[in-house]
Design a protein that fits this description.
The chain is an alpha/beta fold and 285 residues long. It has two domains: 3-160, Glycogen Phosphorylase B (Rossmann fold, 3-Layer(aba) Sandwich), CATH 3.40.50.2000; 174-279, Glycogen Phosphorylase B (Rossmann fold, 3-Layer(aba) Sandwich), CATH 3.40.50.2000. The chain is 37% helix and 19% strand. The two termini are 37 Å apart.
Length: 285
């Protein structure tokens, strides 16, 4: 008999966590003992692509933390989903999901798993609320994350599961490579550096800009930045990066590619003999 697992998440953005959830859905045949389903508060790219894989996607009402009524509605809906689905485990991804929905899972008397995708500081309001709901198991995306979890749960069993990725080789032709480089105004002989991530400061774009500024006199490299702004603060962050590249005189070496759904293609065909890639493992949004 398969273990029925419900993954609970927001679903309003798209980055590394979303890519991981999609990989789990797309490659679920590799874990035939588990039957995954998903409950999301927002419709968007994640919900659409999950549904396209054939898994069950339960829509919860949109939640605004500043509006308690939206939280109550979403909690009632999740309780109904759990009751009707007879799930063996419910996984809350991130402190936001754990804070808002962990209590619902506990009241339903279903084993609760908290999946930590970032280091814990114990300071954010979601972490302070999440700390009140003790999970039965904590999954961490790295040992670094696991070392910080004691700030939230110092007596809960913790395991580390690194992010699953699709390792199937991508086959592209020399014509594909030439076409992508032509599209992105990149000489065939140039070394391409690729960064794929959400457009947030802690992803390190500013550090890369400053480092590349020191290489401005060295010919033969181009930086492809894959990632689209999803919130006003991210748009402002990108504007600052563009300005910094201009100040350092490397604006003609940078390609701001925005959100793309062909990241593997760009990685595979963009790299030449001298190229390297800095990749965070998302679809760049």
């Amino acid at each position: 008999m398969k273990m029925r697992v419900l993954h609970v998440y927001s679903g309003n953005l798209f980055g590394g966590i979303e890519t991981m959830l999609l990989t789990m859905a797309r490659e679920r045949a590799l874990g035939p003992a588990i039957d995954p389903s998903f409950a999301l508060c927002f419709e968007g790219r994640l919900s659409a692509e999950l549904a396209a894989t054939g898994v069950s996607v339960h829509r919860l009402p949109e939640v605004r933390a500043s509006r308690p009524l939206t939280i109550r509605r979403a909690r009632r809906r999740l309780a109904a989903v759990i009751e009707s689905g007879r799930f063996d485990r419910v996984v809350c991804h991130g402190s936001w999901s754990q804070a808002l929905f962990g209590g619902v899972v506990k009241r339903a008397k279903v084993p609760l798993v908290f999946w930590a995708h970032d280091i814990a500081t114990g300071r954010h309001w979601t972490e302070r609320i999440a700390r009140r709901v003790r999970p039965d198991l904590v999954i961490c995306n790295s040992r670094y994350t696991a070392n910080s979890i004691k700030l939230l749960y110092d007596d809960v069993s913790t395991i580390v599961l690194t992010c699953p990725i699709d390792t199937n080789p991508a086959a592209f032709t020399a014509r594909d490579r030439a076409a992508v480089r032509r599209e992105l105004d990149t000489p065939d002989e140039a070394a391409v550096l690729i960064q794929v991530s959400r457009m947030e400061a802690w992803k390190g774009h500013a550090v890369v800009v400053e480092a590349l500024g020191r290489l401005s006199a060295n010919a033969g490299w181009v930086w492809w930045v894959v990632g689209g702004s999803q919130r006003p603060e991210e748009a402002a962050y990108v504007d600052g990066l563009v300005a910094a590249a201009g100040r350092l005189g490397i604006e003609d070496r940078v390609r701001w590619l925005g959100e793309r759904q062909d990241v593997r293609r760009a990685q595979s065909v963009g790299l030449g003999r001298m190229a390297s890639a800095a990749v965070n493992g998302t679809d760049g949004r």
